[in-house]
Design a protein that fits this description.
Layout lengths: L2 H12 L7 E10 L11 E2 L1 E14 L4 E6 L5 E5 L14 H12 L7 E7 L9 H20 L8 H16 L6 H8 L4 E6 L5 E5 L5 E7 L11 H16 L13 H7 L6 H25 L3 H17 L6 H11 L4 E7 L6 E7 L3 H16 L4 E5 L6 E3 L1
Parallel strand pairs: 4-6
Antiparallel strand pairs: 1-3, 1-13, 2-7, 3-6, 4-5, 7-8, 9-11, 9-12, 10-11
Bound molecules: alpha-D-galactopyranose (GLA).
Alpha-D-galactopyranose (GLA) binds next to helix 5.
Length: 395
């Protein structure tokens, strides 16, 4: 939906006119490489999409927040002085209220307001539609709070990412890393973010893909992060770290372990499943560094091979892939105009990301679509991706 249409729907829903409307947006993300390493202090390489959450907002003079989405019939109403009480009770709106609560705890003044949300990031597609909602919400409430408190200067977007992550932990119950919220907050058009998740140091790397583009293939398999094995993987990583620390006392996090150190000490991880998980994390961290080096040199071929290796590691060692993702990634790799293909995001559904010769992007879709539908029984969706900006107020 275009901004004018969202504003129109806002007025139809909440009344009034467009004079006092504000608009904020924050994107979803694609992770190019560095999967399931953010919560181990590892390096990641995501980019913000042009698919996004847009909020049209109007301040109210009382303590009520009213929330509505352009594609949902329900309206959620909440009291800003009692945000904790809605936790776990809502069908929709919990990301927003969770973020408002975290901002409040951090000292921001939460403003009563009417809000209409519009999402173009597909839900459950592994492209961080939830981070898009969280970060846009955080930016909006922080902007309003700064106005109330006459605080000059821009909103601190890294703080917004961190508070959004806290909301996900405390209100939603998913123990996620920082990658998604950071990418949504800090992305830049045509750049990927080389982020150190331990220190939050980052570098914006121009994404020059030459005669290639990024194609996302959505399995359309519904997955729920909360219900998935996400938190279990985090505990396995903690167990592996503890074991390695008995022989490598200087390591603070798995990302500190080199491939060589892992190979010569892996026997201390006696559970073979945990050992496989740690192998993924250690090698994936190395692949991120190699990928960024390769991309900076314009060496797409090496990057493609690293993407493929990343997928295989997520499939066989970390075991967060699924038949649908494997089919898309492996069929893509058979095509001569595909440089590399892998699952992106938490897994168990969602999307693959493939680097494809731009001239053959339509051939890619035409080839994979029927194979997928025949084998899986329902269609996949495809998006030729543009890399957009992080969260901002739309003026
Ligand atoms: C989800 C989480 C991220 C990250 C990815 C896997 O998207 O929100 O923090 O762990 O999974 O790389």
């Amino acid at each position: 939906m275009r901004l004018n249409e969202i504003k129109q729907q806002f007025i139809e829903t909440f009344g009034g006119d467009s004079a006092d409307l504000r608009a904020f947006a924050s994107p979803g993300r694609v992770n190019l490489i560095g999967e399931h390493v953010d919560y181990c202090g590892g390096p990641v390489f995501p980019a913000a999409l042009t698919m996004k959450t847009t909020i049209v907002a109007r301040k109210r003079s009382d303590n009520i927040i009213r929330l509505k989405a352009t594609d949902l019939d329900i309206m959620v109403e909440a009291d800003i002085n009692d945000l904790e009480k809605y936790k776990g009770t809502l069908k929709w709106g919990d990301y927003q209220l969770g973020v408002a609560l975290e901002l409040q705890k951090a000292g921001y003044t939460i403003q009563g307001c009417d809000l209409l949300y519009d999402d173009t990031t597909p839900h459950g597609g592994g492209l961080s539609s939830s981070a898009a909602i969280e970060v846009s919400t955080a930016l909006m409430f922080a902007t309003f709070s700064n106005e109330i408190n006459q605080k000059a200067g821009p909103v601190d977007m890294i703080e917004m990412a961190l508070l959004s992550q806290k909301a996900e932990h405390n209100y939603i119950g998913v123990n996620c890393g920082i990658m998604d919220q950071f990418a949504s907050a800090m992305g830049k058009a045509d750049h990927a973010i080389f982020l150190n998740c331990a220190t939050l140091d980052y570098e914006l790397v121009p994404l020059t893909l030459g005669d290639c583009c990024l194609v996302l293939s959505n399995t359309n398999k519904k997955h729920s992060l909360g219900a998935s094995k996400y938190n279990e993987r985090r505990s396995e990583c903690e167990a592996g770290l503890k074991a390695l620390q008995t022989v490598l006392p200087n390591i603070q996090q798995l990302a500190d372990v080199t491939v060589e150190e892992f190979e010569s000490n892996k026997q201390v991880i006696t559970d073979p499943i945990v050992q496989k998980r740690i192998k993924h994390v250690v090698y994936e961290c190395a692949r991120v560094h190699e990928s960024v080096d390769a991309l900076k040199k314009g060496d797409l071929k090496t990057f493609g091979l690293l993407m493929n290796a990343s997928h295989d590691s997520l499939q066989y060692d970390y075991e967060v892939s699924c038949d649908e993702l494997d089919l898309l990634a492996h069929e893509a790799r058979k095509l001569p105009y595909v440089i590399g293909s892998r699952m992106t995001g938490a897994g168990f559904g969602g999307c693959t990301v493939s680097v494809v010769k731009t001239a053959h992007a339509q051939d890619f879709i035409k080839t994979l679509a029927p194979i997928y539908e025949e084998k899986i029984g329902y269609p996949a969706s495809f998006y030729i991706t543009e890399i957009g900006d992080g969260g901002k107020e739309l003026l």
